[in-house]
């Protein structure tokens, strides 16, 4: 009987354990992103660098998120991506299912006090940077300006389809006296490039990793001239092309132009709205970092002839905060140079 009782006891214990197993399995939560879709907001029109890099990330990040969600790219151009910034900051879902890429000058606009911007760039959750970016101003061969020095004496009609370009060229006009005539209204660098080829404008700026691919035939046939780099760091591929800060005539002008060159650090970066849960931010950053090392992603980057210079989300977040550390007097002068009311 004791042996029989022990056998019954063991059977009851096994039965109880088996009964608990389904409950334990049911208690394990499903991945947050399973069955969901993620909207990737692109703060520019279709075509051009922001759209290209945004769609690269959007097409590869999904498999690196637990639950493998579908990622849908959605263009939201307007006011140099201020429209998209305001949407992400104030109206977008804050659960990790909405992310986006904004104009690299969005924090500069905040520093300068742009009234239309209803967002604080330091409170966005910065997920990661795909590219530190320096744009290049270039002109068609028929333009009066063949090198940037010519623009101090001859008119150059420049398309300013983005936030950063409008700021840069306005400041160069007002501080250094270059004879730029600025034209707005073209939706992105793709439309502006067509306008240049039609002779409607003389010049525009495009990030170098895009221009060296998109503009390769034009450079090969000497149909365009490279005039100026906008970043603080000189791009080694075009070391002969001067930077904006190289035009400064004194230390004060150099500090001012460094402020307007600072967006290159942000470059092409991904953000999530403020208020996104920390665990979701951590997952998005992890997935972004994994995407930057993904073999298929890297093959697509190489196939497109592009380059990347990734920076992790935490480092990027800290860099964004640091980039706003400019003296009030310098900011006041920058506002005047950029034709922004005090």
Describe this protein's structure.
- This protein has two domains: 167 residues, 3-Layer(aba) Sandwich (D-Maltodextrin-Binding Protein, domain 2); 125 residues, Periplasmic binding protein-like II (D-Maltodextrin-Binding Protein, domain 2, 3-Layer(aba) Sandwich).
- It contains 14 helices and eleven strands.
- Helix 5 packs antiparallel against helix 9 and helix 9 crosses helix 14.
- The relative contact order is 0.16.
- The termini are far apart.
- Helix 5 links the parallel strand 6 and strand 7.
- With 342 residues, the chain is of the alpha/beta class.
Name the features.
342 residues; alpha/beta; D-Maltodextrin-Binding Protein, domain 2; 2 domains; 6-stranded mixed sheet; 3-stranded antiparallel sheet; globular
